[in-house]
Structure formats: structure tokens, C-alpha cells
Amino acid sequence: MADTSSDIRPTRLRRAWNSDIAWSFRHAPVAMVSTLVVVVLILGAVLAPLVAPHDPFNPATLNLMNGFTPPGVANQFTGDFFVLGTDDQGRDVFSTILYGMRISLFVGFSAVLLAMVLGVTLGLLAGYAGGWTETIIMRIADVQLTFPAILVAMLIFGIAKGITPPEYRDQMAIWVLILAIGLSDWVQFARVVRGATLVEKNKEYVQAARLIGRTPFAIMLRHILPNVLNPVLVIATISLALAIIAEATLSFLGVGAPPTKPSLGTLIRIGQEFMFSGEWWILFFPAATLLALALSINLLGDWLRDALNPRLR
User: Fold this and answer.
1) Per the UniProt entry, what are the Gene Ontology biological process annotations, in alphabetical order (predicted)?
2) Does residue 306 lie within any of the structural domains?
């Protein structure tokens, strides 16, 4: 029997290459550049132990004599060279950015995943069940929308940290931060999925699934959910940038990542203390990295929204 796998694989690859999404991506220079920036930054964060010249959070590798070394200049006392300079403790700014991005990206991805799972579940339930279930869920969502998301995140963070035993607060700070941002961001997922579910549940394929005896859970999971995922992916991409900014904001305010595990927001907070004394690079490079990461993800989300919109094809 002839092996058809070699014939099938190129066909699938060719179909993927010629798909509407791939064609749109190839003809969108902004999306290509944004993707390149995001991939480089994520790889730099993931491979930080291999890429970073120093471990900035290992006290044994620090030399206070290297403190406040300007970028691109050898230290006058030790002769050490740092591409992006050092901070007040002699830590390499380039290395701190790579390690700080690990925290920011971990918090961002985890918070968006939590918000997406919670929002999609409640949105499906509200749209399909209707009645009091829909009323309760959507009224809770409406109440939460009356408050700024960052204030909701600060409230949840404060409550969760308050009930955490003092000896575990630093260890649990990152998880509490994920919980706070995730619970403050589920509403937009729920509202979009609920609206799409209201449309899908009246279509013929859902009615046919009911006639053959499918349970409501199976209908929501196997029939409706796949047809409402396109807007969810767009919202998740844009929410990732917002979650990273929210984490940076909370850490900048001192209620986010602990000093032992600094994120980009923590590095910006440290850098702004030395901005007016002339050590501008301690603030500038972490802030520029955060800007590049958030902007690239937002631009990628804008392209994805247009690419998945059938009216623009």
C-alpha cells in the first residue's frame, strides 16, 4: 500500500499557507513586525537563564562598586561593561529586564487564562440557560463594569492578601496577583460569549442536537463553544496586553510582585526614584520594554480582529 502521508502533509501545509488568515498576515507588515517583537521578547524572557549575562537576583554575583554604571560605558572602578547599565545595587539592567519579563508574562498569560475560562463558562451558561441564571450573572457583570478594572484588582488583591498568613504572603503574592487581575477581567469575555450564544442557540444545528437527545452541557461544549471562539481569541489577545499593564501598574504602586521577584512594574518603580538624579537608564529601558511588549500585542490583536471579521474579507 502506498504511503499517502507525504501527499497529505504538503496539501495541509499548502491549505494553511493559502488560508485567509495566512494571506492576511503576509500582507500586513504591522502584524509581522509586531509578531517578531513579541516572539523575541517572549523568547528572551523564557531563555533568561541562558541569555542574561548575570543573575541579577543572586546576591553572590553582585558588586556594589558596579552601581549606577551608565549604559555602554565600562565601570571606572571595576572595569566591567554593561550594555544597558546597572542600577543602584550594581545589577545589570539588561538581565533584570529579562527576568522581570518572565514575571510579567507569567502573570499576564495566567490572568487572561483565568478570566477567559471564567468568562466563557459564565457567558455560555447565561446565554444558553437564560432566565434567572442569565439575570444574576449579567447583573453581577454590570455592577463590576461600574468600577475601573484596576480598582477592582486592587480590592481583590487586598482582600486575598489580607486572608493569607503573613509568612506566606511573599510566596503567594504572584498567585494573588493573577487572581486579582483575572477576576477583574472576566466580564468582557462573558458579555461577548453570552451575545454570541444567544444567536447560536436558535440555529438549526443546535435544535437538531436537542432532538437527538444531547444534554445541554454537551450542546454548549461541543456545538456552541467552537462557534463563539473567534471573538474570544481577539479579546484574549488584547486582554493580554491589558493584563501586563495592570500587573505593571499594581507593582508600580507597591501592591503587586514582591521585591524578591520584581516584574517590569517593580523595575519601573525602582527606576523612577533615580530619574531626577541623572540615572535615567534605570527607568527608561524597563519602561521602553513594557511599551514595546504591550504595543506589539495590541497591534497583533487589532490585526487578528480584522482578519477574523468575515465582513472585511
Assistant:
1) transmembrane transport
2) yes
182 within a domain of the structure (yes/no)? yes
The secondary element (H helix, E strand) that includes residue 81 is strand 81-82
CA distance linking residue 237 with residue 293, whole number of Å? 12
- Write the pLDDT tens digit of every residue in 200-239: 988 888 889 888 888 889 999 888 999 888 889 989 999 9
Which residue bears the cell 547599565? Answer: 85
For 159, the enclosing helix (H) or strand (E) is helix 149-162
Grid cell, residue 207, equals 435544535
CATH code where residue 230 lies:
1.10.3720.10
* Inside any domain, residue 91: no
pLDDT tens for 61-105 read: 888 898 899 998 888 888 889 999 999 888 999 999 999 999 999
Question: 94: Cβ–Cβ under 8 A, 6 or more apart, which residues?
Answer: 52, 53, 82, 83, 84, 285
Please provide the distance, in angstroms rounded to a whole number, between the alpha carbons at the two ends of the chain. Answer: 42
